[in-house]
Predict the structure.
Amino acid sequence: MGGKLIKSWNLIGNLEMGYVCRDIACSNNKIFVLDSYKNLIYVYSYEEKLITSWSKSRYDEDFWCLFKITAFQNIVFIIGVGIPPKIQIFTHYGKLISEYEFDNLINVSSMTISDNYVYVGQCDNHRITKYKLIYD
């Protein structure tokens, strides 16, 4: 596999930390960057412009660590690890739509959505958990 670097740009820093865990998702000409240190979502255009940032949870007072992000049909899905672990579902602009708490997911390593299913990978038990998206 080969490739050519077309463009890169600096993200909003956390230079005091040295290492920052980030996850990225793209949808509808937007790039969503999850910053696990600051528990923020930065939304960029493909032209490198910061559109907005948000951090919303009903648990803001002890906001657990945001860990994985993916986007599907104008909806943003975020897994937060903490007690209880959960998947939160947001609009592109950070309005909380719904959340799902679960007991059986720990050490989440990945999340993707395909054909109206959410697939969550775990690194501790080497399994994938599948959830069906249900729309109201």
